[in-house]
Structure of Pur operon repressor:
Amino acid sequence: MKVRRSERLIDMTQYLLEHPHTLISLTFFAKRYSSAKSSISEDLGIIKRTFKTRGTGILETIPGAAGGVRFIPEISTEQAKEIVDGLCERLSEQDRLLPGGYVYLSDLLGEPDLLRQVGQIIASKYKDQKIDAVMTVATKGVPIAQAVSYHLNAPFVIVRRDSKITEGSTVSVNYVSGSSQRIEKMELSKRSLKRGSRVLVVDDFMKGGGTVNGMKGLIEEFEAELVGITVFAESTFSGRRVIDEYNSLLCVKDVDTHTKTIKVVPGTYFE
Amino acid sequence: MKVRRSERLIDMTQYLLEHPHTLISLTFFAKRYSSAKSSISEDLGIIKRTFKTRGTGILETIPGAAGGVRFIPEISTEQAKEIVDGLCERLSEQDRLLPGGYVYLSDLLGEPDLLRQVGQIIASKYKDQKIDAVMTVATKGVPIAQAVSYHLNAPFVIVRRDSKITEGSTVSVNYVSGSSQRIEKMELSKRSLKRGSRVLVVDDFMKGGGTVNGMKGLIEEFEAELVGITVFAESTFSGRRVIDEYNSLLCVKDVDTHTKTIKVVPGTYFE
């Protein structure tokens, strides 16, 4: 039975949102709704305009027999800035300050709605690049990686500091922790990354950059390629940072353990 | 400027999908689209019918001045079964078998589309219950928790086996690992769970149930309430399991390390 336009628009919107960065043929939708391709084409035109007006993203049209549509989630710099400004305020809350100048982030990194927005912001930056995998280190980087991975339609891989039997064979590297100057070890399951993969590195917090540098080393070991690095928050670091090129959504500028105040500003993402 | 129905339907669908288990007033939509409440009401009727027909979920209507609509994601048992059947096949792949009879799951737990579906399936089971937090243990439970958390609109909290300075003060419990009978320790940041919270426990894999039992202990320490337990996969366990009531999506039945074969069947979720 033919499906009405209103129903098609609702279901197509859902389907597209749930399949970002995926090429979907017009034939697929035409069959799904027992409708003519010309009607589907009109529907997609309406969705394309709405997604553009509302800042949801781009609906790419690929012409030809092997063509179709592809939804690319995108968030405008203004929208991203608004979300990050809100985060700056929340991060500056006094009771977030932990001994040693660390900042408590676990509550924020457990909020599904916030993670969705953070995922959209980070994925937006790499929307035009081919990403085969999103890499992060356990544990607090995982929610960020998962959110980004969803919006890029690429799997995520988790680097671990402790070996686990359930990972199978692993490849490990040693790295120097930037802030403590200690030598540490991290490893990744051997089968989790193919040679030549284009990898995006994300993490929750960067101080000296040692952990991120360790992941760079792992990417080399796997003969894969680093596409970019984005961290949720960075803190101003007095030493020499081992990582130069990266994006951060937030920058923890001044931590005063005496007055228990934190100053948080938008990060390099907006530069 | 008044927004046309087609555009309203597309944008409302997106908004509802991104805000599950959230009460949204008709006034909010009326303002957003500069449209009359009666038109919004009609739109919601169309969305409600489509969501029902397509198996997306329930659009609840709450009448009165403080009312509005609430989107409850739901997946039918048939849809869930189909997804789980596909997973049984993938889990039975020969090269997943690891030494000690463990099964390699990390690739599946890094696929965003699969996690979304798993999240929908688990969240569906608890759609009528009040859930304040989803709890899991680091590391591999995190992707499951995050996916479930999104569809229930409840934050997730991560229990850790290793203390980290970035967690602040923690509460810890000792527990007996069901399979190895060793005594281990797990802890949770003190500020991450409020007294009286209703908690759903999820994890990737359950053998003897010791880890899940540890989380039960933590929930008691926090004077919170356990609502339910669901694991992605369980394995048949020869000893006496310390956990009785739980759901599993998958059950790893026979692991033959000699012939390197695994038999995986749907879990107790479907019973």
